[in-house]
Design brief:
- The protein is built from ten helices and 17 strands.
- A hairpin with a 2-residue loop joins β15 and β16.
- α8 packs across α9 and α9 packs antiparallel against α10.
- The longest helix is centred in the first third of the chain and has 18 residues.
- It is globular.
Length: about 350
């Protein structure tokens, strides 16, 4: 499957789509041709079969009466999606009354992250003009609107609307000079960010999903690569202090909401709580706990605590990896204290009515 095949299928689907049937619809597709859904034979064939099925369902519907336009943009490098989206936003013909502008991403975590971040940074007066649909063309697809095209494209076959969704803003200390980063699924520091970093490094040389392999390796070697020392953690929810503690920690993760997963469906936030912290423990305990934590079986694990928070303040005196929706950086001592804050009503996603 190639990006042109996707656009051809989307064109057939939109020609029969009742989405925003009383208005014109502008659609821009941002595709990464190197993403697994295009470049890996097994994933590509699966996505193509799903697309054909959705086209078959769409053509049985009445023809769309209001106009739509569809344009494809291909990314060529890291950061290119952000530049493309900004150009789209700056030159959009939508006015929020007579038309709607939808940006469809077909790539991995990086493509989705860069696109959603640009929508989040729009002035409030402009946000209602634009929305996003993230198609599952990566290897993990934890932040997409469904893990296959049947789920993701189903919203085009019925009534749908833009719905505001939350995001996370991760802000390092001003002393370090690093800029804030955004996350639309889960942001975290520690062991799981190390696993994400090593997965990304291996993926550059050997495309595919090596997350499970690096979970096993990271469990053994993380605290040999990074010093695990006392971490200060404060958490607020609705301006009320919920947690204030200090202890050595393997990881702290915050989701835009609860009931979220990453690393190809690893249920790191299996409940309504949107935060989790895991304390340092022995190698033997790590090996025992790895499986239950991966599969969301978090009950009766004393090293693990779940809680709900709108804001975290993290103090740390060592370098540590950070991941935001699978994209990683290494935080230095000067990046602390670090804040993670949930932003409500940050951007629009097209959702079924």
């Amino acid at each position: 499957m190639k990006p042109d095949d996707l656009v051809e299928g989307l064109n057939a689907i939109l020609a029969h789509s009742p989405v925003f049937s009383d208005s014109s619809l502008i659609v821009d597709v941002i595709a990464n041709p190197k993403a697994g859904g295009f470049s890996r034979i097994h994933h590509s064939k699966k996505r193509l079969d799903e697309l054909k099925e959705m086209v078959r369902r769409a053509v049985s519907l009445p023809k769309r009466t209001s106009p739509f336009s569809l344009k494809l943009h291909l990314t060529e490098r890291c950061g290119h999606a952000a530049a493309i989206v900004q150009r789209i936003l700056d030159h959009s013909a939508s006015n929020g009354k007579d038309s709607y502008h939808l940006i469809v991403t077909a790539g991995g975590d990086g493509t989705s992250l860069e696109t959603a971040e640009r929508l989040t940074k729009l002035p409030e007066s402009e946000k209602n003009r634009f929305g996003i649909v993230r198609l599952p063309f990566g290897t993990g697809n934890d932040g997409s609107e469904g893990r296959d095209l049947i789920v993701a494209l189903e919203r085009f076959l019925g009534n749908a609307r833009f719905e505001r969704k939350p995001a996370l803003c991760v802000t390092p200390s001003e002393e370090g000079g690093a800029l804030p980063r955004y996350s639309f699924n889960i942001a975290s520091i520690g062991l799981d960010a190390y696993v994400a970093d090593m997965t990304n490094r291996l993926k550059r040389a050997f495309p595919g999903d090596s997350y499970k392999f690096w979970v096993n390796v990271g469990t053994l070697f993380y605290d040999r690569v990074y010093n695990v020392v006392e971490m200060g953690l404060k958490a607020w929810n609705k301006e009320k202090l919920m947690l204030d503690s200090k202890c050595p920690r393997l990881l702290v993760a915050m989701g835009a909401s609860g009931n979220r997963q990453y690393g190809s469906n690893k249920k790191i936030l299996p409940t309504e709580d949107n935060c989790v912290a895991v304390a340092q423990t022995s190698l033997f305990r790590k090996l025992i706990l790895k499986g239950p934590i991966e599969h969301g079986r978090h009950d009766n694990i004393p090293e693990l605590v779940h809680f709900t928070a709108d804001k975290l303040l993290i103090e740390y005196s060592e370098r540590v990896p950070l991941q935001c929706d699978g994209e990683t950086n290494i935080l230095a001592k000067c990046d602390f204290p670090l804040t993670m804050e949930r932003i409500y009503n940050a951007y629009n996603v097209l959702v079924p009515v």
